[in-house]
Amino acid sequence: MTEERTADLGAFDKDMRLNQASSHRSRDRENLVEHVFISEILQECWFVREQPIEILRSEVDAYGYDLVIECNSILRHVQLKATDSWTQPRKQTVNRFLEKKAGGCVVWVVVRRELDAGRITLSYRYFGGKRPRDRMPSLGETPAINPRSKTLRSNMRLLDFRQFDPIPTTPALLDRMFGKAKPLSGFSK
Fold it and tell me: Fewer Cβ atoms within 10 Å of its own Cβ: the N or the C terminal residue of the chain?
């Protein structure tokens, strides 16, 4: 077997192990994606936008959001969803309570594994106001169904993939959520 073929098999085996771990340790993977997402927006705000940002994590997932983020005097209640770039989920389940929250939005994080680099890169799909201070559009009336019991989940709604706007980069996502950067004192050049 050639050295190149052996390397390809090694990468394939590693990819299979990561897929299995993602399935069996989904909470760990969810935490990893959330931390990478937070790191990306913190770095973008600090190093590029020269702008402070405040991020609060929710300990209770009863009201439809995972993070509360404030930047540019704009408050966002953010529900995070995550999928791998090679999967094709068509729907996401969203809590109706998110509609009532200031700046409610859903950030669907699309994860691309860069095996050679040992890192992940992110792109996004976004459901929320078209401009930074706009309210989130209605979630509609399509109820979600519990996959195990097949009963209706009265406070959950299904959103179709097409309802989310594609956003390729973290800077573009921050512009959509919070508008263009307005550096505050302490970040002056």
Answer: C
